[in-house]
Amino acid sequence: MQLPADPILLYGVVNTKLRDTYASLEALCDDLDIDRASLEARLEAAGFVYQPDLNQFR
Prior knowledge:
Elements: H1 7-20, H2 25-32, H3 36-45, E1 50-51, E2 56-57
Antiparallel strand pairs: 1-2
């Protein structure tokens, strides 16, 4: 799956997938073959940090 380059769109897509489909960020990354560290770095650069207890970026 090709994720959006725009960080705001990426934030929305990832959080929607986490809410609707995946129980954790690890599960999302494994299933979509995405490097977790890279994904987190892209979102952190835009000011979003993964909250495991909420299973979403904020």
